[in-house]
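Q: A reviewer asked whether we had any structural model of the full assembly, not just the individual parts. We don't, so I'm hoping you can provide one. Inputs are below.
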Amino acid sequence: MTIPDWLDDFLWTYQNLIHDLGINGLLALAMYVVLAVGQLSLGQAAFMGLGAYSSALLTLKLKLPFLIVLPASCVVPILFALAIGVPTLRLSGVYLAIATIGLGEVLRAVYINVDLFGGALGINGIPESAETWMIFGLLAAATVALWLVGRSYIGRAMEAMREDATAAAAMGVNVARYQLAALVTSAMLAGLAGALSAHVSSFIGPNEYGFDRAVTILSFALLGGIGNPFAPVAGAWFLTLLPEAMRDLPEVRLALNGIIIVLIVLFLPRGLLGWRMKRRAA
Amino acid sequence: MSLLTTRGLTRRYAGLIAVDHVDLDIPEGGIHAVIGPNGAGKTTLFNLISGLVMPSEGSITFAGTDVSTLPSFRRASLGMARTFQNIRIFGAMTVLENVLTGMHPALHAGLASVIFRLPSFRIEERQAVARARAALDLVGLTSRAGEPASALAYGDQRRLEIARAIGPQPRLLLLDEPAAGMNPAETIALADLVRTIAKTGVTVILVEHDMGFVMGLSDSVAVLNFGRRIFTGTPAAVRSDPAVVEAYLGARLAAKLKAQHDAQ
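A: Here is a predicted structure for the entire assembly that you could use as a starting point for your response.
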């Protein structure tokens, strides 16, 4: 298959942006799964870092092929999710947010101080083996899977928990199990995003997965909405494209970026795609 | 055999004993009321039975199983359902979805069959929808099935809570002040609804303030005061029990009324 020259040029010029769209979409979904069960859990940046570092080490130290590295790099984030998930199940709201942000900061200190992780310089020379089709294939599969699950009885239980966890438990919903499952899914998606991003940019550093990234990921979901899984992806794409679209206005770019976000939050409090998932009533 | 038995059931809070060594024996079938003045511990007793609050002491046996320390979702899957004094419907979800959420314990399809829409998932879902519609039919909310639950009027929200509770066809239905905030006409309709539900074989326990509602409806009445069970018996017997009259009216007024009664 040959692709026309203009498309080839376009893809080459915007390669980084296109990769970012896919990776940020996965991160937005990682945020969505926990928000959808009513948990303000902000460990996605930390899970992404764990995925990125473990994938880089598996590739460089063990020389494993990328198609094995990719699924394997979810293992470490999932183990961390289980380890922090059980003790933090009793926390909610801002307390959970603070505890999960703490994870990212602790890990940053570990990356900087342990030689295996390359210290403050990070890890260089990671092969660029993640293809665009892999990134978007995974994003599409994850979005569709979450949409199908969301329309089932599991989605009803998730929404019920978000509205009133006590009432949901009285209806027979195992709230703790769903919360833990959501956290594990979130860790898996963020870990995938981390592994993919490490293998498109060839370099990872300890400061990429801290508080700033955690807040950015949260803003994807808040801006897009959490009523359906397409919404957070739309939020991620909007926030990724917005600075790019204003490249010709360098003086006002940052201010305008901020103003647009504030206006959306004010006038579309349910997000860009604020609609609620329809569930078929057979 | 009793459907629900409590022995020495106690719940202490700092400086307060909300439920104090309560023994209950609720037989299978019928409508059973728990009454008592404000703060007598009725709602705490319900929360203990349904598992939202764990006992400080004592035991709860439901259908032969010791459920004293089981979390509430496990008790729900054993066939216990409840409504709340302050309505707790899922406002953003539709009326039908609310009832379907109540049927959660009956739905088991695995993740793969959910994602690939396998027959096991579709059949289960179709059955759940049919049963949910039957429950809505019983409470008279069929025409509102597709509306957001928050759009319903207060009395209809109470009916929706009842539909959500009976959807999974529980063995025991706990109604926490179902007539609260209802006008007389709605209260009469509610009493009919509770009778209809009981006739389908569901054992009903209700906590209530409205004495008229309780007396006409219940097969047995338990009276709580300061967390203790001070009486159990028929509605007719409860009216003439001096301890109950005293709990509701206070010792002095009760004595005065009795003196007047004796003088006549």
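A: Points you may want to mention in the reply: Chain A has a mean pLDDT of 91. Chain A touches chain B through 26 residues (CB under 8 Å).
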